[in-house]
Amino acid sequence: MNTTSTVQIKCEIAEGMFAGEFAATIHGVDGNVSLFVDEVLVSQDRRWLRVTQVGDANGHTRVLLPSEAFETGSRWVDLSNDNVRPAER
Amino acid sequence: MILSNVEILKAIQNNELKIDSLAGDDPTKAPFNTTAVDLRLAESLSIPEAQSISLDLHQGTIANTLTKISKNYQLSQEQPFCLQPNVFCLAQTLETVAFPLHLSARVEGKSSLARCGLMVHFTAPTIHAGFEGKITLEIINLGANPVILRPGMFICQLIIERVDGLPMQTPNQFTGQRTPAGL
């Protein structure tokens, strides 16, 4: 059964177009996707992005990104389970 | 269903919806309209400059490319930005918003600015349920004359709607959720 919760996913963070945003690259199981994200969603060490976990997808974790990725035009992405951790409180 | 000014304010005061910081809390004054709330322009603009490249969204590095080819401008009251005709720029709202999964919104322009030829978004007005952050605006001046952009000016309006149903397959997970973080 699927469960939904807020989690953090591993990502690579680079400078964004504005002071309050970053460019994030995420290694999905179907390839890399990138998007701009607000700074409030990025961990202090700039390695993790806060997203909504939607559930299990064929042994991977399906999450909902904060905005659509450039490469796919979609907010849904499947990740290897080891790229996902519980959200920081 | 579109939220009225009174319902928008109620949602903010109940911590159901976050608009930080709201320019006023009287629903019969700015930033409220009868079915919208106005948001303000932040202090920076980003203008992608012409390059001898084609933007390939499948390349995997488009976010970094856009950052590299764009020039940032800082605005102040003393030094506003003069947007020339047919120039495209990106900007953000001064306010940070956070939507729960049962509310979404559309960013719309303002008729006063539209009369001057200014579009503050095109093709991407939807603020999806669960969105959190500053709203990025795609601005272009389609008028014949330059338009002055000042930080803090009311630049767009949000039309907020209730979502019918829940966007995930496990709706019980969202029962009672009041923020995108599930708190």
Order of helices and strands of chain A: EEEEEEEE
Tell me the name of the CATH homologous superfamily of chain B. Answer: Deoxyuridine triphosphatase (dUTPase)
Strand coverage percent of chain B: 35-45%
Helix content of chain A: under 10%
Structural class of chain A, by secondary structure, is mainly beta
The most extensive interface, with participating residues per chain, is: A-B, 39 and 33 residues
Q: Report, as a whole number of angstroms, the end-to-end distance of chain B.
A: 24 Å
Description:
The complex is a heterodimer of chains A (89) and B (183). Chain A is mostly beta strands. Chain A is globular. Chain A is 0% helix and 54% strand. Residues 170-183 of chain B have low confidence and may be disordered. Chain B is 12% helix and 38% strand. With 183 residues, chain B is mainly beta. The A-B interface holds A 1-6, 14-21, 23-25, 31-38, 40-41, 50, 52, 54-55, 64, 66-67, 70-71, 73, 75, 87 and B 42, 44, 46, 57-58, 60-64, 66-67, 70, 72, 90, 92, 96, 128, 130-134, 136, 167-170, 173-174, 180-182.
Short description:
The complex is a heterodimer of chains A (89) and B (183). Chain A has 89 residues and is mainly β.
Protein topology:
The complex is a heterodimer of chains A (89) and B (183).
Chain A: E1 5-10, E2 12-15, E3 21-28, E4 31-38, E5 48-57, E6 60-64, E7 76-79, E8 84-86
Antiparallel strand pairs in A: 1-5, 1-8, 2-3, 3-4, 5-6, 6-7
Chain B: H1 5-13, E1 18-20, E2 32-33, E3 36-48, H2 62-69, E4 70-74, E5 81-83, E6 88-98, E7 103-108, H3 111-115, E8 118-119, E9 126-127, E10 132-141, E11 147-149, E12 154-162
